Structures are given as C-alpha cells and as structure tokens.
Amino acid sequence: MNIKSSVLKTGLYLVVCFFTTFSNLTYGQDSASPQKITIETLFILAVHNHPNLAVSKTMVDIAKQKTTVAKLKTLPEVNASVSAFYLGDAALIEKNLSGSEHVPLPHFGNNYSLEAKELIWKGGAVKNSIKASTLGEELAELDHLNEEQNIKILVLGYYLDLFKLHNQEQVYNQNIELAQRRLELTEKLYKQGMITKNDVIRNQLQISELQLAKEVILNNSHILNDELNVALGLPEGTVIRPVDAILQSHMQPADLVTLKQEALTSNPDIRLAAKETELLYTEKDITKSEKSPALVLFAGNELVKPITNVMPVIDKYMNTWNAGVSLSYNLSSLYTTDRKLKLNDLQIEKNKKYELALKQKTSVAVNSAYIKYNEAYAQRNTLAYNKALADENYRIIEKKYLNQLALIVDIMDASNSKLEAELKYTNAEINIVYAYYKLLKETGRI
Questions:
Q1: Domain count of the fold of the chain
Q2: For residue 30, is pLDDT > 90?
Q3: How far apart are CA 134 and CA 127, in angstroms?
Q4: pLDDT 10s digits, 112-152
Q5: Which range (140-144, 313-317, 399-403) has the least confidence?
Q6: Which of 19, 229, 386, 418 could form a disulfide with 234 if both were Cys (CB 3.0 to 4.6 A apart)?
Q7: C-alpha to C-alpha distance for 277 and 66, rounded to whole angstroms
Q8: DSSP code at position 314
Q9: Angle at the Cα of 174 (from 171 to 180), degrees rounded to 5?
Q10: Which of 25-29, 98-102, 113-117, 301-305 has the lowest mean pLDDT?
C-alpha cells in the first residue's frame, strides 16, 4: 500500500468515526434514526476495530521489534566490570611442606575492566539472521493481510444477511397488509352470506402465521446487528441499515484466466507459502555458516590493584590494555552441520510441494467462485421471472375468488407462492453481491 493510499484510508476512517459518533448521539435521542453503512465503510471499520485484527496487528509489531533486535548483532559487544575485594596475607611454604613464612599483603584490592569485541565474519551468519527476521516481519504482515481478508468476508456475510432480513421484513409487511385487505373483503362477503366462516378463519390464520414469521425475522436481525456492532467496534445499541444502492452497483469481474493469474500473485495464502520457502532458504544459509570460522576483533583495558605477580607485592594500580583479532572454528560442525542441512532441504522440499498444492487449490477455488457468481446471476433472472409469474397468478386467482370462481384454498396457495417467490428474489439480488466479493476474496483483492 503506498503512502497516498494509506493517508486517504486513514482520513476516510476518521470521517467515518466522526459520523458514527454523531449518528450514535442522534440515535440515543431518537431511536428512529438507524445508521446506514456502505460496504466500503463496513470494511474500513472492520479493519480498524475487529478484535481478531488487533491481535494479528500486535504480531506484526512484535516481528518488527525482532528485526530491530536482530540488527543489534552488527554492533560491537561491550562489557564493563568493577570489583572490590579483601586480599588476605600470603604464606610461603617450603617444598617439602615442612614450614611456612608469613608474608603481609595489602588487604584492599579492586579491579576495573572494559572490553569490546565485534564479530567481523562468520559466513554471513549475522546478515542472514537479520534477513530471517525481516522475512518473519513480512510473514506477519501477510498473515495480518490474510486475516483482514477473512474478517472482511465474514462481516460482509453478516451485513448481507442483515440486508436479507430487512428485505424479508418488507416483503412480510407487504403481504400482511395484503392479507389484511383480503380479510376485510372476506368479512364483508361473509356478512353478505356469500362465503362461509371458514374463509374468514383461513385469512386470520394466515395473518397470524405471517406476523409470527416476521417476529422471527426481527429477532434474527437484532442478533446479527449486535454481532456486527462488536465486529465493527460500534457502540452497543447502534442500529445498522445496509445501503440499497449496492444492489444497483456494477459488479462485473474480469475473465476467468485473468482472475486465476491475479490469484497466483495476490492471494495471501500463496504469498505466505512463497515467503515461508524464502525464509527456509535463509535458515539453510544460516546453517551453512556453522562451518565457517568466526573472526572477531577485540580490545580491552584493565586497571587493577594491588600488583600481586611480583614479590614483594606492590600496592599500586597497574593499567594494561590489549587489542587484537581472534579466529575460532567449531570442529563439531564438520559432522553436525551436514545433518542439519539435510533437515533444511527436506523442509524446503515439503514447503515447495505445499506451495504447489496451494496454487492448485486456489485455482479450483477461483473457478468455483466464478461459477457461483454466474450462477447467482442466472438464479436472479430465473427468480425474477418466477416472481412475475407468481404475481400474475395471484392477480388471476384473486379476481376469480371475488367472482366466486375459486376457493379460499386456491387464493391461499397463490398468496403463499407469491410470498415465496418474493423472498427468493430479494435474496437472489443479495447473493450476487456476496458471490462477487467471494470471488474477489479468492483472488486476494477484497
């Protein structure tokens, strides 16, 4: 993500937060003012406020700090020490241990030392350790991006399910209103002796069932609304309303071949697997460095009192310094490193096979999502036709019923068919939106 895009998103997020707070204050005063949220706003709020993403973001910060710590290995290692001690008198003992001579010594002693050393070369061990930490940082960022994709499609599912419930509520309201008008008509016909009481009861029963179904929809809407509030970081009690314009928005993906190519470069899972393979190669380079000698530059300074390596002991400070180069080699690496390299090779081979399998799986997933997207369009068109047929059938049966050419059972069946067709159609419109974003998710571009 470039800096300009990041600034724009941050600015949009602040605007969203402002209007969210303002609308919540308004909602607290007037519960009839629900908050409308677009899909773009939905994603921004989810990315900034979802609890799971807060965890993965912390993992990114930890990985960055590990890289900072790894870079410290390029700096010299400096040790300083100060000591004070009591020095007891010495005793000179004969060779045959037959006698001894007491030698008084200065009793107070102290030591000041400063030592610095720096690893100059060990087969690129330090450089590769820093590279491994950097790759770990990139892995954490990709994992965070992958989690973002999963959270976006999750909250989108909640959002569109809530949209479906709101549309279903409207459909039930229209059908309840229609059934109530029909009840008024049947009651008039019953009073005129043109129909039996049974027709009135059937209408009353249908209204009761419609109202019960509507109550279930309202309860499910409250549950989904609460889950979305938590996922988006909105205050408890915020009423969310999806924006109708998303059904009219143009959602035409690229062709299947282009989508599959994009998935191979953009899908977070594939990018994670490729980065893990790169990290394994770096770990192999670190293992190889075990066979290299370590070249270290060192320097030190020491101030010590008393001077005890001469007789008589001198109660004065002696300052000494040193500087040089040391070369060391771990001989055990001759028979241990090869086995470690074999393990590295097996891990690399395993991850390459996993990466290939993941690419095949992603290709199948993109293909399936593409098919489902086209299927959603085909279903919408079919269900639109079915809805028109159900409406026309209800109009004809209602007219026949009013002319005493149809039974109450016929108009009830026609009413139920009309309701079912309307519910399926309104869901089909929303299914297209979900299928489109599911396809984007498989390609890693949601």
A1: 2
A2: no
A3: 11
A4: 999 999 888 888 888 999 999 999 999 999 999 999 999 99
A5: 399-403
A6: 229
A7: 20
A8: B
A9: 140
A10: 25-29
Same domain, 268 and 324: no
Looking at the DSSP assignment, which residues form a beta bridge with residue 212?
none
Supply the pLDDT for residue 186: 86
Query: What stretch of H or E contains 145?
Result: helix 125-191
User: Residues 426, 354: one domain?
Assistant: yes
Burial 338-352 (b: 16+ CB within 10 A, else e): eebeeebeebbeebe
What's the longest Cα–Cα distance across the chain? 143
CATH label of the domain that carries residue 155: 1.20.1600.10
Residues 270 and 263 sit within 8 Å (Cβ to Cβ): yes
pLDDT of residue 250: 65
Q: Hey, what are 169's tokens? A: 């509520």
Backbone dihedral angles phi then psi of residue 301, each to the nearest 5 degrees: -145, 135
Task: Place 403 in a pLDDT band, splitting at 50, 70 and 90.
Answer: confident
Asked, as a colleague might, if the bond just before 293 is cis with ω within 30 of 0, I would say no
Q: What CA–CA distance (Å, rounded) separates 259 from 442?
A: 9
Look at residue 298 and tell me if it is in a domain.
Answer: yes
Q: Which domain holds residue 152?
A: 34-75+122-293+329-443
Contacts of 255 (CB under 8 A, 6+ apart): none
Q: List the structure tokens of 178.
A: 């229609």
Strand partners for 304: 111, 318
- Give the integer Cα–Cα distance in Å for 244 and 240: 13
Please check whether residue 8 lies inside any domain of the structure. Answer: no
* Cα 176 to chain centroid, rounded: 43
∠ Cα 193 196 198 (to 5°): 155
**238-267 per-position pLDDT tens digit:** 999 888 877 766 677 888 999 999 999 999
**Residue at 5 is within a domain:** no
Q: Are residues 103 and 235 both part of a single domain?
A: no
In single-letter form, the type of residue at position 323 comes to A
Pair of tokens at residue 206: 């249908």
